[in-house]
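batch_manifest entry 22 of 60
target: DUF6545 domain-containing protein
source organism: Amycolatopsis minnesotensis
requested by: lab member K.T.
priority: normal
notes from requester: please return tokens only, no post-processing; we will run our own comparison against the previous entry in this batch. if the run fails, retry once and flag.
--- input ---
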Amino acid sequence: MVVALVMWAAAAAAAVWKCTQLARMPRDRGLQIVTACTVLVLVALTAQLVVTIPGLAERFPSQTPVLIEFVLLNSFFALLLGLLHTRVAPSRAGVRGYLEIGLALLSSGILTATFVITETSAGDTGYGDYTEAGVPSGVLFFHLVGNLYMSYATARGAYLAWNSAGHVQSHTARGLRVAAVGLAICCLGTHLPRVLATSGLLLLDRALIPGTATWTSPPLGIGVAIFFLGVGYPGARTGIAKARLWFEARSRYRQLRPLWSALHQQFPTIALLPTAGPARERLHVRQMRLRYYRRVIECRDGLVCLSPYMASPVDEADSPERQAALVRDALARCSQDIDLVMPSVIAAPANTGMEADTRAILALSREYGRTTSTAPENSPR
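--- output ---
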């Protein structure tokens, strides 16, 4: 049960992640297929768990979870292998895709027929441990066919995923190689040993590899978890990068507040959008980078408005501390009836570009906030 829950959790996380990505890019064909694959796995594992819940398990034939798992996973691998063929050999992807679908349908048909025939003739056959004595040959054949296809699908998927890594970006390539390792573990640690065991029981009346119904489950759980780790790696990497940019934008947004607040109090028209108070500002979560760049622009507009009130022109070599003192003095002069001087550039950027301009304004705001004992924080935001 623990292994099943681990596999289900990994599948659920991957399915939710891919569905959110698909909601943002609904026309991405590759993402549509990958999302369908992950949802199929989640449905298969969910169905398998549901029919093992006490109170529900008695309402289903004992082999129902295994049948559901095999049939849905066959569909999953047909989609997955078809997608991987489009990366490795695009010219033959159509033919190979139809072959993969046909092979999956053939395997599912044989499994379903075996399920029906075996249940009719043998009753409740107990598919849980096919290595027990007296298990009908139909049950053994069922497991042989299912694991034979899964051995092919995981081996083929591992090969294609590893080779597909050479045709994509570096971070996606890492994810594909991790997914390939997970599929290889499933193949070598679970499905291939089960094929050998069931073949021996059918042909020689003894398992060539004993105990495969028990000890092969942990490698399967590990392989599935690694596979979904690889599938989710590119998206997780992008999510981490976005989170880092969000925190950076939020930090800089708050660092700009001392300068912005003073300028906005004196020149309210610099606000591009309706403003709110500092308490509400702490609750801002969405569109953080947009808010940050908007504040940079508003600060620059405020400095342009303030420039004619400077007591002396600003030299590009002036330190942020010196410029902060000039800004504080100019703000005090705004309410006085004085002759305006020739405007000069306050917080001039060292280089061209938005980032250089932002760094200069940030340095001025930090120094202004540090040296101003009573910043006008009660101004509207």
